[in-house]
Amino acid sequence: MAYKISDACIACGACASECPVEAISEGNGKYEIDADKCIDCGTCAETCPVGAPEQA
Ligand code: SF4
Ligand code: SF4
User: Fold this and answer.
1) What is the pLDDT of residue 16?
2) Cβ of residue 11 lying under 6 Å from some atom of ligand 2
3) Within its chain, how far is the Cα of 17 from the centroid?
């Protein structure tokens, strides 16, 4: 299991610096989570102002 960032993402970057395993990087117009790195901690979902990270 891993989190995924939905199209609601406004590319603010807040989640990327909070991820403990650096699984989040800037993608094409929004941020993306590397599912192989994500440890499912939920910090990105708590940090995001628009609720874009969702549990897949
Ligand atoms: Fe990083 Fe945790 Fe979000 Fe996975 S759930 S991308 S490990 S902050
Ligand atoms: Fe996108 Fe939310 Fe991450 Fe900001 S915190 S880059 S809006 S997923």
Assistant:
1) 98
2) yes
3) 10
Name all domains of the chain by residue range, CATH numbers in brackets: 3-55 (3.30.70.20)
Per-residue pLDDT of the chain (56 residues; tens, 9 = 90+): 899 999 999 999 999 999 999 999 999 999 999 999 999 999 999 999 999 999 97
Query: Separation of 7 CA from ligand 1 center, angstroms?
Result: 17
Across the chain, which distance is largest between two alpha carbons, in Å? 24
Strand partners, 55: 3
- The CA 23 to ligand 1 mean position distance, Å, reads 6
